[in-house]
Amino acid sequence: MQILKGIPVSPGVARATAIVLDSEEMAIPRRQIAGDEVDGELARFDAAVQKSIDELGRLRHTFSETFGEQLGDIFEVHRAILTSGPLKDEIRGLIRAERYSPEYAVATVLRTYSKKFLVMKDEYLAERVQDVYDIERRILRSLIGERREQLRSLDVPHVVVAHNLTPSQTAALDREKVLAFATDVGGRTSHTAIVARAMNIPAVVGLTSATADTSGGDELIIDGNRGLLIINPDERTKEKYHQYAREAEKRETDLTMLRDLPAVTKDGHEIALHGNIEFPQEIAACLDRGATGIGLYRTEFLYLDRDEDPTEEDHYEAYASAIEMLGGRPITIRTCDLGADKFTHVSGETDERNPFLGLRSIRFSLQHVDLFKTQLRAILRASALGPVQILFPLVTNLRELRHAKMVLRDVREDLEDEGISFDRLIKVGIMVEVPSVAILPRQFAKECDFFSIGTNDLVQYTLAVDRLNERVASMFTPAHPAVIRLISDVINAAKTENTEVGVCGEMGADTVFTLLLLGLGVDFISTSSTSVPSVKKMIRSTSMRQARRVAAKVMTLESDREIMSYLADLTRQVIPETFAGPEGQEL
Amino acid sequence: MLSRREITILNRQGMHARPAMQLVETSSRFRSNIRIRKGGQQVNAKSIMEVMTLEAVKGTLLVLEAEGDDAEDALEALAQLVSDKFSED
C-alpha cells in the first residue's frame, strides 16, 4: 500500500482498477504489465506502430509535393525504421520478456539509441538524434492517444490517473465508467477542478507523481474529500472506506430529501439558492439537487478548445438549450471571462507578465467589441425564451460599466431595427470582485440591477495572494476580516440602492460561511450543484436572528483564524453530520 | 560459411539516415545474416537505427560479414552501393 497526498478538488470516494494515461511530453515512468495483459499490450503496440507508419506515409506525400523529394525522404526514413523488423522486435521483446508497458518499452529502446547519437563527434550525424526523438514521440503519441480513446469504450468502471486532464477531456469522461480521477498537476480552482465538481466526479489533483507511482491494473482508492490517492490499499483501509461509502450514501439520501424544500430559515426568511454551471448539460444535476435557477453560467467554455471564435448561433444554441432545460427558472449569463488562467487562441496572442492584472474579462470584451456584440446579441435573442440576466465580470471602474452598457444599448437598437424580439426589461449586473468596486460600491449599485460577489477574485486581489501558487495558497481565505468587511460594505450599499446582491464564488459553497452570508444580508447564493443540498440544509437549520448575531460577532473578530474557528464550531453545532466524514481519522 | 569484405565510406556526409536506409533495404533483400563491424563495434545490417549509430563518417573503414547461401551476392551488392556513394555526391 502506498499513499500519495494531493489537493482534493471534488468530493467523494471511489475504489476501482486504474487506467493510467501517460503524457508524451513527460518522462515515461517505469511501468510493468500483468502476464495476462502481454498479448493485448503487444497488439496495442502494433496498432500504434501501424498508425505511425500510416501518418508518415501521408506526411511524406504532402512534403514531397510541397518541398520536393529530398525533404519528403526524411519521413520515408522514419517510415522505413518502423516498417523494418529489428526496432519493432526489440521493443516487442521488452514488452514480452520484461513485461514493460508499451510506452515504457518504446521510451527505453529509443532512448538507448538517442544516447548513442548524442555522444557522436560528427556534428551532422549527431544531429540525427532529432529523428530518434521524433520517432519516439510519434509512437508514444499514437499509444497514448489510443489509450485516451479507450476511455470511451470501457466496459467496467475504472478510475483514471493522468498527468493532466484539460477541462474538455474531463467533461468528455463517461460518468458511468470513470468513477474518479487523479492527476499529477493542477490546483483547487483550475477549470478541470471546476468541471469535476460540476460533474460530481471525485478528483484529486497536484499529486506530482501519480502517473509514475501507479500502474494500469492497480487497485486504487481516490479520496476526493481528503486529497488522497491510495495505491493497492490493504484490507483494513478497504474496510474503512467501505464503511465510509455506506455512511456517505446515507447522507446523500438525506440531503436529496431536501430537494423540493425551499431554502428558508426557521423564522421564514427565504433566499434564492442557485447553481453555477459551465455547460448547459449540468443544469439537470443542479435541478436534481434542488437549485432554483442558475446564478452563474460561465460562458468562456464556449470559447475554449476550438480553433475559431464561437458564432452568434453557437452562443444562441447553448443559451436556448439552457433556458429550455430550466423551464421558466431564471438564469444569469456571465459574459466572456477569458484571460488570466483561461486562454484561447485569441487572448493567448501575447504573453503577459501578470495575467491576473492583465487584459481579461470585460477588459478583453471592450477591446474586442465584435466578439462582445456577438455574445450580447445571442443573449438578448435568448432572453425572448425565458428569464435571463446579464452579468459583466471584473468591472473595475464606472467608465467600464457605462461602456459595456453602451455596447449593450447598441445591440438592443440593432435588434429592434431588425424586428427581433428580446426581453426589454432584461436585468444587468456586475461581478463585484475587484477591490476598487467593493470599496466604493454605491455608485455601481445605482447603475446596475444586481451585484454578484465573486469571492475567489475578490480574496485574491484584496489579499494579494495567488490561489494557484501552493507556496502562498494557505494565505488565501475569505475569512480575512478585510474581505468580510468589504463584503459587508457591498451588501449594505446594495440594500441602500435596492440592488439585488448575492455571492457566486467558492465562499458560497462552503457551509462554514453560510450563516455569516445570511447574517450579512445576501439575497442569493449561487454555488456548484454538489454544494446546494448542504448549503440549503444549513439555511433551513438556522434563523435570521441567529445569522445576524453571528455576522455581528464576526465583524468584531480580528484574525482569519479566530473567524474560521468561531464559524467552524458553530457550523458543527448546527449540522454535525457534515463533519462526520473521514476527516481527521487515522489511516 | 562466413564471407567478409572491407569497404570504405566515400560519400561526403557519411552514413546518415538516407544512406543507412538504402543499405538496410539492400541487405534485407538477402536471406543471409549480415553484420557490419567498425573497430570493436558490430551492428545488424538490417536495422536502420543500428547502422546509423555506427557513426560511419567519410573515410571510415567498415568490415561487412555475411553468413548464408546468398552471402557473396549480398556483399557484392552492398559494396557496390557504398562505392557508388549511395548515389549522393
Structural class of chain A: alpha/beta
Note the main sheet of chain B.
4 strands, antiparallel
Which bin fits the share of residues in helices of chain A? 40-55%
Sheet bearing the most strands of chain A, described? 8 strands, mixed
Q: Under the CATH scheme, which architecture of chain B would be assigned? A: 2-Layer Sandwich
What's the level 1 CATH class of the largest domain in chain A? Alpha Beta
State the CATH superfamily name of the largest domain in chain A: Phosphoenolpyruvate-binding domains
- Choose one word for the global shape of chain B: globular
State the strand order across the main sheet of chain B: 1-4-2-3
CATH superfamily of chain B: HPr-like
Assembly of the depicted chains: heterodimer
Q: Name the overall outline of chain A.
A: globular
List keywords for this structure.
heterodimer; A: 587 residues; alpha/beta; Enzyme I, Chain A, domain 2; TIM Barrel; 2 domains; eight-stranded parallel beta barrel; 48% helix; disordered C terminus; B: 89 residues; alpha+beta; four-stranded antiparallel β-sheet; globular
How does the SSE layout of this entry go?
The complex is a heterodimer of chains A (587) and B (89).
Chain A: E1 2-5, E2 7-10, E3 13-21, H1 38-67, H2 69-83, H3 85-98, H4 102-118, H5 123-126, H6 129-150, E4 158-162, H7 167-171, E5 178-183, H8 191-199, E6 203-205, H9 210-213, E7 219-223, E8 228-231, H10 235-256, E9 272-277, H11 283-288, E10 294-298, H12 312-326, E11 331-334, H13 361-367, H14 369-382, E12 388-392, H15 398-418, E13 427-432, H16 435-439, H17 442-447, E14 450-453, H18 455-463, H19 481-496, E15 500-503, H20 514-520, E16 524-527, H21 532-540, H22 544-554, H23 560-574
Parallel strand pairs in A: 3-4, 4-5, 5-6, 9-10, 9-16, 10-11, 11-12, 12-13, 13-14, 14-15, 15-16
Antiparallel strand pairs in A: 1-8, 2-6, 3-7, 7-8
Helix pairs in contact in A: 1-2, 1-3, 1-6, 3-4, 4-6, 12-14, 14-15, 20-22
Chain B: E1 2-8, H1 17-28, E2 33-38, E3 41-44, H2 48-52, E4 61-67, H3 71-83
Antiparallel strand pairs in B: 1-4, 2-3, 2-4
